[in-house]
Amino acid sequence: MEETKSLYMMTLGCPKNRVDSEVMLGTLRTRGYSLVQEASEAEVIVVNTCAFIGPAKQESVDSILEMAELKKSGSCKTLVVTGCLSQRYGQELSQEMPEVDHFLGTSAYAQIGDLLAAEATPRQVIPDPDYIHNAETPRINSMPKYTAYLKISEGCDNACAFCIIPTLRGGQRSRTVQDIVAEARNLADSGVQELNLVAQDLTAYGHDLPGKPKLHELLKELVKVDVKWIRLHYAYPRVFPDELIDVIATEPKIAKYLDMPVQHASDKLLLSMKRGRNSEFLKKLLGKLRERVPNLVMRTSLIVGLPGETEEDFELLKEFVKEQRFQRLGVFQYSDEENTAAFDLPNKVPAKTIERRWREVMAIQKRINREQNKKLVGQKLTVLVEGPSEESEHLLVGRHEGQAPEIDGQVYINDGLAYPGEFVTVEVTEAHDYDLIARVVERPDPKQREHTPREAHPAPVPLKALARPPEPRPE
């Protein structure tokens, strides 16, 4: 039996990166590693990095340097850097950071157990991106027991001008319907009630597989799994067939929530972004979705400051935000990334202008959020209870169907009891800019509840940052 080693895993970036970390955790646990919650206690530290935009790269570098200090002062013997930053800058990083023992690219993370076990391992293992895990791959869900991310494909075949992801993650590689359903069943058997489907491009699912299965066909199989909510993230708005809208509208398990990044509303900008569709198409699609799926909660992402964005383009974007009244909205400030098409575009927008535009859109959205939340006062909602609030042990916190984990607002419960992972009916009593206050009006019979020991709920793995902007919070 190999000697047990303590392991600390730091994940930066998006939920797709979190799934990669969970596969590394599962792989290393089979090798006898045990997870610790404090980096200072770990013999092996893994930093799973993000390199999507400038601030994410900087945070990744800062985190690596912070962990490297523990090689001098703590018990850390081995420091491993994985993910997008390794994939993109492996050569440079290995020269500049001698304190890092191994750099693994985006397709090498599943090999981490073999690499750490080998006597003579190369310092860099950065193959072309071509790997994707399957239902048989060891994986530890790092989220609370009742929720999990389910990655249905890896990589991307789009060529958006601002995006480095296809370079870092490779072309699209979809998993088969049977394999995804098998993993969903495994997660449901472990207590998961909410499946959050993620991919670089959810709506392109299956076009690279034999027989070309479609997303709506996958969803029809997934709803047979014993979970309560199935949530759709990153639905690229290029291909969105009526059959997909019908499944969202008619299947009770599909959350009436759609995360669809539209990026801009100016046709000129959409063209230079290489998004493949114009603003008229986007508006018609959004209109059709809202008409056919009552009470649909829409989340989107926008970019301000792409080279060539004029004040006229920006005015179009602001009008679009006011007109569409998205329930959830994240805005990226354009980041100039080498090896993307936008990097070579003329007419760069000054950083101060980009920040002003970001603030203006956020101010508009904050008003919209407040108005929409106020309309929920007095309404009854089903809420997934997550447990005591970090702010006060006298408050419970949870999420309704229109609130995704980690990025959206929450429901604070100040009247009533419930267990973590329980679905209760609440009445909304107060509305704030992003969060709601509510009281429990109905809950399942506690005697019917399946009791699990406290240690059966794994402590969440540290997740430092999201590469997708969450809803803005007051400064």
Automatic annotation (TrEMBL):
SMART domains: Elp3. Residues 5-121 form the MTTase N-terminal domain. Residues 443-457 have a biased composition (Basic and acidic residues). [4Fe-4S] cluster 2 binds at residues 156, 160, 163. InterPro entries: Elp3/MiaA/NifB-like_rSAM, Methylthiotransferase, Methylthiotransferase_CS, Methylthiotransferase_N, Methylthiotransferase_N_sf, NA-bd_OB-fold, Ribosomal_uS12_MeSTrfase_RimO, rSAM. [4Fe-4S] cluster 1 binds at residues 14, 50, 84. It catalyses: L-aspartate(89)-[ribosomal protein uS12]-hydrogen + (sulfur carrier)-SH + AH2 + 2 S-adenosyl-L-methionine = 3-methylsulfanyl-L-aspartate(89)-[ribosomal protein uS12]-hydrogen + (sulfur carrier)-H + 5'-deoxyadenosine + L-methionine + A + S-adenosyl-L-homocysteine + 2 H(+). Its cofactor is [4Fe-4S] cluster. It is an enzyme of class 2 (transferase). It is found in: Cytoplasm. Pfam families: Radical_SAM (PF04055), TRAM_2 (PF18693), UPF0004 (PF00919). One of its GO terms (biological process) is tRNA modification. PROSITE patterns: MTTASE_N (PS51449), MTTASE_RADICAL (PS01278), RADICAL_SAM (PS51918), TRAM (PS50926). One of its GO terms (molecular function) is 4 iron, 4 sulfur cluster binding. Keywords: 4Fe-4S, Cytoplasm, Iron, Iron-sulfur, Metal-binding, S-adenosyl-L-methionine, Transferase. Catalyzes the methylthiolation of an aspartic acid residue of ribosomal protein uS12. Catalyzes the methylthiolation of N6-(dimethylallyl)adenosine (i(6)A), leading to the formation of 2-methylthio-N6-(dimethylallyl)adenosine (ms(2)i(6)A) at position 37 in tRNAs that read codons beginning with uridine. NCBIfam families: 30S ribosomal protein S12 methylthiotransferase RimO, MiaB/RimO family radical SAM methylthiotransferase. This is Ribosomal protein uS12 methylthiotransferase RimO. The gene is rimO.
